[in-house]
Automatic annotation (TrEMBL):
The keyword Cell division does not apply. It comes from Orbilia oligospora. Belongs to the glycosyl hydrolase 5 (cellulase A) family. It holds the Pfam family Cellulase. Keywords: Glycosidase, Hydrolase, Membrane, Transmembrane, Transmembrane helix. Residues 185-204 are annotated as: Disordered. The chain crosses the membrane at residues 20-39. This is Glycoside hydrolase family 5 domain-containing protein. One of its GO terms (biological process) is polysaccharide catabolic process. GO terms for molecular function: hydrolase activity, hydrolyzing O-glycosyl compounds. It comes from the Eukaryota. InterPro entries: GH, Glyco_hydro_5. Residues 205-443 form the Glycoside hydrolase family domain. PANTHER family: CELLULASE FAMILY PROTEIN (AFU_ORTHOLOGUE AFUA_5G14560) (PTHR31263:SF0).
């Protein structure tokens, strides 16, 4: 009788040796994948300088451009320029319209500085604010996004003369809403542990001349609107500094949930009160067309932040409409203003209709949500356009609401990825006929005086940079519609 030897039982659990081999193979795969993604998404697309003679550039650059000279401006001019809009503005489906029902296209630039450590819009130490406003209009922009920080409002510091030295008339400027902060905001400002030297003047230059930050902000608004330029005021950041990073103290409109961690702490109510204080002076200035309620909300919740942000935005908008019902309310998406898909299920709803404009920001480094797709500077047009439609383009395509791309930009000396992103974005903005706001006019960053490579003007603040990016040298009335 033949008896077969018993077969070895196969254990369902993988042997330690086999597991080790598989783990080693996986580690090798990951070790190879990470450098590949790094190369594909960053170095390959945005490391090498672009040859603009051979690399595709935006369509408008093919036009014959005429660079304007310096504006024939005097700092003390009294006359106002004609308005560029029939006011007030409204929304109708996907469009912003004027009082005659005609479509309006916001072609904006950002003028930053008041949201940063120095509490003053950039360039006032180089040019009179009227000259800068005239340059902005001559370059073809019809509107300006003007950011401020909550810290500026809460403390209203004295700004030393060195930051506004070309604007000596500011010493006689006094805000109509005189006096200090009131109530809860006043106590909060006193409790703030701000490290800024407020009210001491410029000790280095032995100057005691200072001007209040809110006075300077008001004066800049008036210079812009006297030039016929519309102003969109923007709450950019809580603590006065460069935005944006992973610091949770500045990630959203309120940070009191963090306790005493933040140098400047504020509740949602304080955030709204700050808005009221800033905007109250502009109730009778029709060219202050609205409020960009908060810059680039972001949190570990990611896209799930939209619901709570929408509720807060409605509260702030309603309070501001109690001051001036004509103001447009610009509501940015979450995830650093990249994502507005939440509007489908939770749109912004206000008692005063036709006032909501949604806002998105699009930069070359955006789009990190999909590791395999990579940032926008590495995408082909099909992939880029897919994300744009999904994130915010559907609002225009489906005639739901206007979208203002309130920030985008690229350096004056681009890498290949910069030009790839720029070309894709120009094509998409043209295709969608979206409103837009370029970041930024400023040639220098605050505090360290670092060169702003995204600048639209030279260091003199009046000479445009005629390069591949914008059709700066002619009026931008046909921009995006070539």
């Amino acid at each position: 009788m033949n008896v077969e030897p018993p077969q070895e039982a196969v254990h369902p659990v993988m042997t330690t040796r086999r597991f080790g081999i598989l783990l080693a193979i996986s580690a090798l795969f990951v070790a190879g994948l990470v450098p590949y993604l790094l190369y594909r998404n960053i170095l390959h697309q945005n490391y090498f300088y672009a040859s603009l003679d051979s690399y595709p550039t935006p369509k408008e650059i093919a036009l014959k451009l005429h660079c304007p000279g310096r504006p024939n401006m005097t700092a003390n001019r009294l006359e106002k320029k004609p308005q560029l809009f029939k006011l007030p503005l409204r929304t109708q489906g996907r469009n912003i319209i004027d009082s005659a029902g005609e479509k309006v296209k916001l072609m904006s630039t950002n003028w930053y500085g008041a949201s940063d450590e120095d509490f003053v819009p950039g360039g006032l130490d180089v040019r009179h604010r009227n000259e800068i406003a005239a340059t902005i209009r001559e370059m073809g922009f019809n509107s300006v996004r003007l950011p401020y920080s909550d810290e500026l409002v809460l403390t209203n510091p004295d700004v030393p003369e060195k930051f506004w030295s070309k604007n000596p008339d500011l010493t006689s400027w006094e805000r109509k809403e005189a006096g200090g902060l009131e109530g809860e905001n006043a106590q909060h400002a006193l409790d703030s542990t701000s490290t800024h030297d407020v009210g001491s003047g410029d000790k280095e230059n032995n100057s005691t001349l200072t001007v209040k930050a809110l006075d300077i902000f008001d004066a800049v608004v008036k210079s812009l609107t006297d030039e016929g330029i519309a102003v969109i005021v923007n709450n950019h950041i809580t603590q006065a500094r460069w935005c944006c990073d992973a610091n949770l103290c500045d990630a959203t409109w309120a940070n009191d949930y963090l306790g005493k961690v933040c140098r400047i702490s504020q509740t949602e109510e304080q955030w709204i009160q700050n808005w009221e204080k800033v905007m109250r002076n502009y109730v009778d200035n029709p060219l202050v067309i609205g409020a960009d309620l908060r810059n680039e909300n972001r949190s570990p919740l990611g896209k799930m932040l939209w619901s709570s942000w929408a509720t807060a935005a409605e509260k702030a908008a309603n309070r501001l409409h109690a001051l001036q019902p004509n103001w447009l309310m610009f509501v940015e998406g979450v995830a650093s203003a990249n994502y507005l898909q939440g509007v489908r299920s939770r749109p912004i709803s206000l008692p005063i209709p036709h006032r909501v404009v949604y806002s998105a920001h699009v930069y070359g480094w955006s789009g990190w949500g999909s590791l395999l797709k990579g940032p926008y500077w590495s995408r082909d047009y099909a992939s880029f356009a897919y994300d744009m439609y999904d994130n915010w383009g559907f609002l225009l395509e489906e005639n739901i609401a206007p979208v203002w791309v309130g920030e985008f930009g690229a350096p004056d000396v681009p890498n290949t990825g910069d030009v790839n992103y720029w070309t894709n974005l120009m094509n998409f903005l043209e295709e969608m006929d979206a409103d837009w706001g370029y970041w930024a006019i400023n040639p220098r960053k605050p505090k360290g005086n670092e060169t702003e490579t995204y600048a639209l003007v030279q260091d003199d603040w009046v000479t445009p940079k005629c390069d591949y990016r914008l059709k700066l040298c002619n009026l931008l009335t046909n921009f995006m519609s070539i």
